[in-house]
């Protein structure tokens, strides 16, 4: 019986799934090549979740009698998962604190905001290792995921502590030790690397290559804040490739499925798979790599930004 759907993206040159077998993260050899379909279409249902992905002719036959709220011809274009920023500081304007507090109150009342993670800045002169342990352990006992700043300016063994406590992710890690890298790989604790911070503050680059080779789950974030004023994930991916020696598939995985994993959201976000949220980008290029290759050119490349199957930006 025919039914209605929210969105049909058809005739794409490439659909970059990133994952195709329900993986919650990619590490090690799995990063060598991402799952990509050539000549494909994608359907998002009225609930905002992906209902089908496949070759153009297969989707055309399967949904020939279906209706769509919107159809977009993606001929010659690429569809990618919505990018995930695993570490950002979007609110820091002091003069708007009262407005922000009111928004939080409204969101809390409407059930639109909740706390998932606990964070501590584990650093010399800020929170030492013992203080960090107590705070994080208390948060864990309250049911919060551990996701914290560590080993940025000094090697304080934050990575080892995070692995011991079962942290979901640790950010920065410019000064992480070899033992910390090994511990994070074993614990499946994501390393959220922030190439803009190292670039703008002239810090030592995080050892992404060492982490990747050791099997650490590597994610990327913008660290958007007054000291690193960049919230462009395409530029973050480019810097990760140039300055941290990551490959383009590694960088895209780090800004999609692995970033979602770092936030505890990879079961619903970070890849294009049936049952996941219909958060997507459509870029005007026949190859997805151009999103990373064209440094600063993403404004011209990105034609659509889509969340839950609804277009929120159209060039």
Automatic annotation (TrEMBL):
Q: What class of enzyme is it?
A: hydrolase
**The family this protein is said to belong to:** Belongs to the metallo-dependent hydrolases superfamily. HutI family.
What is this enzyme's EC?
Answer: 3.5.2.7
Pathway involvement of the protein, from the record: Amino-acid degradation; L-histidine degradation into L-glutamate; N-formimidoyl-L-glutamate from L-histidine: step 3/3
Under Pfam families, the record lists:
Amidohydro_1
Amidohydrolase-related domain location is 135-311
Q: What name has this protein been given in UniProt?
A: Probable imidazolonepropionase
Q: Which reaction does it catalyse?
A: 4-imidazolone-5-propanoate + H2O = N-formimidoyl-L-glutamate
Species whose genome carries this gene: Sciurus carolinensis
**What is its cofactor?**
Fe(3+)
Q: Gene3D superfamilies this protein is in?
A: Metal-dependent hydrolases, Urease, subunit C, domain 1
Record keywords: Histidine metabolism, Hydrolase, Iron, Metal-binding, Zinc
Q: Does the keyword Metal-binding feature in the UniProt annotation?
A: yes
Q: Which cellular component terms (GO) are annotated to the entry?
A: cytoplasm
Q: Which InterPro entries match?
A: Amidohydro-rel, HutI, Metal-dep_hydrolase_composite, Metal_Hydrolase
| A GO BP entry | L-histidine catabolic process to glutamate and formamide
Q: Which GO terms describe its molecular function?
A: imidazolonepropionase activity; metal ion binding
